[in-house]
């Protein structure tokens, strides 16, 4: 067989054998009878485990290796069957059956010992300790002897320091005592059964901190059998034990009797004998001349060397258990043993790393058994303690996200162990950023930190971890992003200039939650304002950015104002100069002030400098307007205009702004900004001009019409694929609000052929041909307002032709009911009112001209009565002439009256008032009032008016409603008077208006009350609309 084939055959037998050994040991832990015997059997089988691992790693595998493993496999299989038989019959086995099984197991152990003798020494090469260990194990197994009912435990009794050894010896078995020093040629002890059963020695092997009973394994089983299975593989010498403690000595010292003890034990013995004048050796009873102690250097070195070899062997043994994924109990003991080894000395951690155990431990973190996961976390923490190199190695192998996930475990021990491991790792500066980079890691830690009521320990440890992670600026940013601002604010206030700059940059980038905005503003504002005063450009830039972020939250405005930011920013805008500075501090300061002022602060009396100037003073307003005039950067102009818009809300400030704009001709600049391609600047300039319209509207129209590309550029063509923008909406609103009586502007719009574009846009919006946008409604309202403005200058023939050509009456009538916008309905009613007022002038009686030639064809007079019916041209009953909705704008012909009356039931007061105004045009003295009233009665108009009076209040609405009611009382006959008098609520409204209305309203209310016989009649003047 070739070496390759031999190696494959060896591996095919070795792996199943290792698994089989684990299964046997697991089965042994369940047996309740003869625990000591079965523990020893398990110990023998377990100690074969590392022998197989050594053979696997051997450079020169023996030729008979496969045969040896096959023989061992047969023996272990037989042992498994016997153990399972004993396990199944635990409660019913007779003594004879148990003795028979124990006899068979003894034979199996001896066969395994004989098999181990077949391993040639060459298999271990220069590893002499391995050869000696295997030889010792073989000898022990060959001499194994198990007797049912035999107690193998060695009880340790505390010796009385005042009694001699001869007195103690009467009550216990004599011990073989070796001479003073450990001889170099000492024979290997083969009677290890005694050592294995020493309770104190078991305690030495098993770490107390990790000893926890499993659910399915009894406490006694776990603490006895498993501890013995993890016993020493290295040959053990009796001389290693202290006669007093029966434990391996750490610091062996020899007293003058020649007997060696552990220093701590013999010192305590002698101290307890202080009251006695004589000192005796506790072992020999020999009187001691003095209390002198001499370090047994040779023995101490030998024990230390033995411990090193034994720890290496234990590491290998534990690794083997982890490699083959042994039973949970074996894995637990392996991890606990490794943890104990780590505690011995620092170098052992290196040995564990070199043995490749870390990947195996990481695999245990995914184990289904939570006790195993807990033990794995504890082992990793022990490896990481006080060793930065170990921490780094752990971070390279272990997935940090898995550890962080376990911090949220519902099992408290696992949760605590995961936190303690992460706390240990976070002490390494190299790993702090790596830990913080785990997705969601910092968020989980913050959540645990604030859940103190649920788990105080977890909260405390999470807080410690977060404090460690603060060393990384990137982690501080992540903490702030996840709602923990304290680290950022602390470093912003107390850190170095570089750290402050970095923290300010972070603060300017992250999004602040509603619950933290005010807290951050209170803590961050003072240091940020100080940073603005710095001469460092980077620091100033970061501070401006952070302050802009804080100021963008309106609730922070009061906090910022109290911190003195307004004075600092005004100084930056008007006074401070830093030559060569790359940032535009004026623009940054203006942006911050605009954000603060838009929050609604009281600006009129806000002091801005030490000279006593207030924000609304001529000095400040003049400076702002001058800055706008002198071609400043777009960003600065945007924020300057935003500041003016805030100040314009105050009547006093608005008056000053209007005066300065007129005097400085700044209106030219503002109108020119309408053409600026910068979106925000165009919006800001348009809004300011809209605010100035009531004070200087005609001046703005004059400037607009003289500006290139205006006013047509204010009307944008929107197609089906684009959304309506804010700028398009404010532009249409601007045109709609400019003075409607301005013939200059209306003709300019007409000549630029803007009306077809406006109508096209309206049709697209109403037909949902334009993508939805938050600006659809204001844009549509502006377009309708542009059309309404033409109805105020119908005296101009070109505009009259325009209104007829596009049938404005039908257009406004349709929009009365086709839109959901109150403003569009109000504007449409106003448009119909203006058109209806013109109907009176446009409606003329029909005239038929007869020529002499045509008279020849007319019928005789006796037939004229018949033919006249056919020749009669219909006339409008209201306007007494030939009417149409298109040519004379007749509301009756356009069927607009019904829709106007329907608008009287609208919730919006302004829509109702506009509809009443339009209805009033049909009751004017220039029309046939009686026929108009009759027509309106058929539409039940008076009831609509009465309902409007009940639902709404206001001087304008009362005047129009009372005027219509009076018309119906005078011209509507008994039917109208009856309907009006039957309304129970009208008198109360009339009385209210009579007492609280203005002169005209009181006069109309009084007149109606007289009609209703509510007050005495007396002559009154006639009132018209």
Automatic annotation (TrEMBL):
It catalyses: S-ubiquitinyl-[E2 ubiquitin-conjugating enzyme]-L-cysteine + [acceptor protein]-L-lysine = [E2 ubiquitin-conjugating enzyme]-L-cysteine + N(6)-ubiquitinyl-[acceptor protein]-L-lysine. HEAT repeats lie at residues 357-393. Gene3D superfamilies: Leucine-rich Repeat Variant, Zinc/RING finger domain, C3HC4 (zinc finger). The keyword Repeat applies. Its EC number is 2.3.2.27. The lineage of its organism: Eukaryota, Viridiplantae, Streptophyta, Embryophyta, Tracheophyta. The keyword Repeat applies. SUPFAM superfamilies: ARM repeat (SSF48371), RING/U-box (SSF57850). InterPro entries: ARM-like (IPR011989), ARM-type_fold (IPR016024), Armadillo (IPR000225), HEAT (IPR000357), HEAT_type_2 (IPR021133), RING-Ubox_PUB (IPR045210), U-box_domain_protein (IPR052608), Ubox_domain (IPR003613). Residues 235-313 form the U-box domain. ARM repeats lie at residues 356-398. One of its GO terms (molecular function) is ubiquitin protein ligase activity. One of its GO terms (biological process) is protein ubiquitination. This is RING-type E3 ubiquitin transferase. Pathway: Protein modification; protein ubiquitination.
